[in-house]
Amino acid sequence: MTATKQPKPKQKRIWPRVLISVLVILVIIGGVMIYFLFNFAFQRGGFASRQEQNINTEFYDRTPSQTWTQKTKDGLTLKAHYFTADQPTNKTIVVVHGYGGSARKMSSYIRMFHNDGYNVLAPDNRTFGQSQGHYIGYGWLDRSDLAHWMKQLNQYNPHAEIGMFGVSMGAAEVLYTLPLAPHNVKFAIADCGYTSISAELAFQLKTMFKLPSFPILQIASVYSKLFAKYNFQRADTKQTLRQNQIPLFIIHGDRDTFVPTKFAYQNFRNNGGKNKELWIVKGAGHAQSRSLEPEQYQQRTQAFAERWFNPQPAKQLGK
């Protein structure tokens, strides 16, 4: 007699389908979770809205300024605020705020440079302050905006000499913008800036959420391209500083747990020019160098500015 084949249990045929279904569900859940993380970090009103509270804005509020406007290629209206020096000068410092900040929240830095005798132009980056925008540019999307502000500054004063200054995200923005800087940018000062957006986000994922960067950053990069219309993975000072010849002063606190101090050393090494300085402030946390060492901070930044600004007097202004 010939033995008949026994049919395979249905359970064995069902398991592959179950596993595939579970994987699909997990992928969907993971994608949704990363989407919420992306919005938390990139969207206006997300994590950024919780930063930099209770800041002294007295100088900004009581000092007259001009409000400048630019229209971006993607249709946003951005604002900047121009503070004229007490004595006529061609020297202007462009002061760029950090993540969660605004021109108003940079009041103490504006006052410092204004007291040094400079004009100050303080932009509100897209999504911050009085500027429009839905997604944060982390300095990379903002670099063309910053270059345009300096173009407007040169139209306002054809004899202008420009110094760039930024804190945290604003410092990274300055470092990303250097290849686009006009010829009359004499120097740049970057206080606690990161090297790449990816490296900073990876650090925050690890410290804040105890999560790995892979595959979260790769998926978030897709969301960034779709919704914010830029690729944050391209942002890296290895590229933007490699050919830089503009004098650069890097400042960072040695106890920075938000933008790690290692980024300062990496940015310093990434800079291809010889005219560069590095100051690691002992005991300073994130963006605390000025508050911890106010006199030395003012002296060092002013000395660096005066070293590279044209020593000619300002009598040529407007001529």
Helix percent band: 40-55%
Under CATH, the homologous superfamily of the largest domain reads: Alpha/Beta hydrolase fold, catalytic domain
The gross shape turns out to be globular
**Can you tell me the CATH architecture of the largest domain?**
3-Layer(aba) Sandwich
CATH topology of the largest domain: Rossmann fold
> Helical segment tally?
11
Mean pLDDT: 91
What topology does this entry show?
Elements: H1 10-42, H2 58-62, E1 66-71, E2 77-83, E3 91-96, H3 107-115, E4 119-123, H4 143-156, E5 161-167, H5 169-177, E6 185-191, H6 197-209, H7 216-228, H8 237-240, E7 248-253, H9 262-270, E8 276-281, H10 289-292, H11 294-308
Parallel strand pairs: 3-4, 3-5, 5-6, 6-7, 7-8
Antiparallel strand pairs: 1-2, 2-4
Helix pairs in contact: 1-7, 4-5
Domain Serine aminopeptidase S33: 88-230
Pfam family, one: Hydrolase_4
Protein name: Alpha/beta hydrolase
Give a written overview of the molecule.
It is a single chain. This protein has 319 residues and is α/β, with parallel strands linked by helices. The protein has two domains: 11-42 and 197-234, no CATH class; 52-196 and 236-310, Rossmann fold, CATH 3.40.50. The radius of gyration is 24 Å and the shape is globular. It has an eight-stranded mixed β-sheet with strand order 1-2-4-3-5-6-7-8, sandwiched between helices. 40% of the residues lie in helices and 16% in strands. Helix 1 crosses helix 7 (216-228). The chain has helices at 10-42, 58-62, 107-115, 143-156, 169-177, 197-209, 216-228, 237-240, 262-270, 289-292, 294-308, and strands at 66-71, 77-83, 91-96, 119-123, 161-167, 185-191, 248-253, 276-281. It starts with 9 loop residues before the first helix and ends in an 11-residue tail after the last helix. It has eleven helices and eight strands.
